[in-house]
Design brief:
This protein folds into two domains: 102 residues, GMP Synthetase, Chain A, domain 3, CATH 3.30.300; 57 residues, no CATH class. A hairpin with a 6-residue loop joins strand 1 and strand 2. It is α+β, with helices and mostly antiparallel strands. Helices cover 30% and strands 21% of the residues. The longest helix is centred in the last third of the chain and has 18 residues.
């Protein structure tokens, strides 16, 4: 989206954007590894020029972003398992950046918890004092999980 904003392909896009992709997985052929089955949901909230309506935003982002970036076989277009798009669900988003929102909580925790694979309680890890258990505990749990996988005791684990 940044490239499309900068090259003028989608001129009404603004820099503040948040996205989330929910992927449904299936157990792989070897019975252990996970393989993507389908993209269940794509959420995009993006800042835009004030004069652009929500339907234009929705249609443009689905066609020029989602369908160009995501593999069609995972979007399941035309089936009962077709991806659900949630575009700017809060409505108008023409003011962005620190003037509109400040703080560390929100989707950042999904990144810190490795894509939402691991359950978490909320709030962001980053920016917290390292003595806080939600930060140090999460980092140590990752260390334990990596050690178990590296030792060959499992292929995936949630600690």
């Amino acid at each position: 989206m940044a490239r499309q904003r900068k090259n003028g392909e989608i001129p009404w896009l603004r820099p503040d954007c948040k996205s989330q992709v929910i992927v449904e997985y299936k157990v792989g052929k070897n019975g252990e590894n996970l393989e993507p089955k389908r993209i269940f949901n794509i959420l995009i909230s993006t800042q835009h020029a004030p004069e652009v309506d929500n339907e234009t935003i929705r249609t443009t982002l689905i066609e020029k972003v989602c369908k160009k970036v995501c593999p069609n076989d995972l979007l399941k277009i035309g089936t009962s398992e077709e991806c659900v798009y949630v575009i700017n669900p809060s409505g108008k988003f023409d003011v962005g950046g620190p003037a509109a929102d400040a703080g560390l909580t929100g989707r950042k925790i999904i990144v810190d918890s490795y894509g939402g694979w691991c359950p978490h309680g909320g709030g962001a890890y980053s920016g917290k004092d390292p003595t806080k258990v939600d930060r140090s505990g999460a980092y140590y749990a990752r260390f334990v999980a990596k050690s178990l996988v590296n030792a060959g005791l499992c292929h995936r684990v949630c600690v």
